[in-house]
Design a protein that fits this description.
There is one protein chain. The chain is an all-beta fold. It has strands at residues 4-7, 10-12, 18-24, 35-41, 48-53, 60-62, 70-74, 80-85, 94-102, 106-109, 113-117. The strands form 2 sheets. Strands 2, 4, 5, 6, 9, 10 and 11 form a 7-stranded mixed sheet that branches. It is globular.
Length: 119
């Protein structure tokens, strides 16, 4: 079982930026053949999809709520996936989760990282 680890969350003022990272705790694991998605879950709400990348860099998409403000990317080694979040709004406050999926047979999640947007 592969465990993913998210990092980069924190407290930021409205209009600010954060960059989240997602990597595997398992040595040697890469995202090369996986679709990697970011999800978020706000208090009292269901988990919602935010962005996806993969299995190649041409397959990138965003939820309408974040399109134009968030950018998903991965490093050349395909060991880390990033979510650059700009112009953050209070409604972006949530726990952000990273998910890697391969043909619905291999499905890995991280523990989440808290993002709080508040003045």
């Amino acid at each position: 079982q592969v465990q993913l680890v998210e990092s980069g969350g924190g407290l930021v003022q409205p209009g600010g930026s954060l960059r989240l990272s997602c990597a595997a705790a398992t040595s040697g694991f890469t995202f090369s053949v996986y679709v990697v998605r970011w999800y978020r879950q706000a208090p009292g709400k269901e988990r919602e999809w935010v962005a996806r990348i993969g299995p190649t860099d041409t397959y990138i998409d965003y939820a309408d709520a974040v399109r134009g403000r968030f950018t998903i990317s991965e490093d050349n080694a395909k060991t880390t996936v990033y979510l650059q979040m700009d112009n953050l709004k209070p409604e972006d406050t949530a726990v952000y989760y990273c998910n890697a999926n391969l043909a619905s047979q291999y499905d890995y999640w991280g523990q989440g990282t808290q993002v709080t947007v508040s003045s």
